[in-house]
Design goal:
By secondary structure, this protein is of the alpha+beta class. The chain is built from two helices and six strands; from the N terminus they run βββββααβ. The longest helix has 9 residues.
Length: about 80
């Protein structure tokens, strides 16, 4: 499991993830919104995710495990 590639576009950082559950993430450094795309192409938006948490997600040995433990139920979210 790893980051396949990363693209920075203004305030947004996009990462493609090789994970059993996660496919793609977009983080907005200004609004602190994190959009996660799962393997089944369902997208969720998470509010007020600190930069440090997104960085730890990117650097984690297992992004799926980190996401489940530290993001999925800890931030307000909505299905897109």
């Amino acid at each position: 499991m790893a980051i396949i590639n990363e693209k920075i576009d203004g305030n947004k950082i996009e990462v493609n993830i090789d994970s059993s559950n996660l496919k793609h993430a977009i983080y907005d450094t200004q609004s602190k919104e994190l959009i996660i795309t799962f393997k089944n192409d369902v997208k969720y938006s998470y509010e007020n995710v600190p930069w440090e948490v997104f960085t730890k997600l990117r650097m984690s040995e297992s992004q799926g495990k980190f996401f489940n433990l530290n993001i999925s139920k800890n931030y307000k979210y909505k299905k897109l």
